């Protein structure tokens, strides 16, 4: 019988526990395998921090948010800083390989986003047996139609937009809401359409504040007393691209988390004179229970990962493909980010219902 290590790396998201349960239940009940839970992502594998998971550990966790294993952003292959850091990453890779051997692992199951699956690909090239699962609220993983976590975050973002509508209407204001998504605009685009945002700004489409101003003024002329602007956090890159190095450094140092929402709100007030407020939804988008759809996706991806383990099909990431579950070589997601194509049907859908995407 096989023994595998399982870890959750990168930021957490709803559905991680459902996926852990899916992998471990199928591996235990159908294939009689042993699961070792590795703590805090790759850090646990570097430090040898793991424990055997018994059926009790993966029972009753389907609906729980976060991850029972703990998450971590350790990237063992990342180049070390030029000086001052004694922990050379090569040592970390060697430590991982050594602990993999010492723990007697036949395979490593990694639950994560782009960074994690890239690390998985590199570890597979180092000779380790790896199976990846795609999780992220950003939905930016190449090789799968959807990652689990996205649907839950979409529901939270949509509810926030719904709630902003009533207060925007009461005060006749423009409300700007910033959603996560890292470098991609999926979450803002989908939540913006679901919540009826009047303007949606995503990093893939550079916006023109004059166009935004005109759209808001047109709405006011049509008798609309308020407007909702949904902006993806990644749209900050559009603003930063126009800055020189010094300006960018100053801008970044001004806040713990640089925000595009406040900047857009200020630009709107300057352009239109309309009273504007900003909301940064933040980590609430990653918290709490997974949606039904994410539970289903995480469970099926989890059990499919156990099937790959049983068949000894390593170096692959399980994926949603159309209406079925498949798998792709780990080289497919490695080092890539799936962004919103300009001609994506959802951009067209948004424009067709009168939403301004920041350009004419
Ligand atoms: O990848 C998920 C995500 O929540 C992104 O949307 C966001 O940019 C990032 O993680 C935040 O990272 P951290 O948890 O390290 O602050």
From TrEMBL:
It is found in: Cytoplasm. Keywords: ATP-binding, Cytoplasm, Glycolysis, Kinase, Magnesium, Metal-binding, Nucleotide-binding, Transferase. Transmembrane segments: none annotated. It comes from the Bacteria. Pathway: Carbohydrate degradation; glycolysis; D-glyceraldehyde 3-phosphate and glycerone phosphate from D-glucose: step 3/4. Its EC number is 2.7.1.11. ATP binds at residues 11, 73-74, 113-116. Mg(2+) binds at residue 114. Substrate binds at residues 136-138, 173, 180-182, 233, 277, 283-286. PANTHER family: ATP-DEPENDENT 6-PHOSPHOFRUCTOKINASE 3, PHOSPHOFRUCTOKINASE. This is ATP-dependent 6-phosphofructokinase. It comes from Leadbettera azotonutricia (strain ATCC BAA-888 / DSM 13862 / ZAS-9) (Treponema azotonutricium). The lineage of its organism: Bacteria, Pseudomonadati, Spirochaetota, Spirochaetia, Spirochaetales. The gene is pfkA.
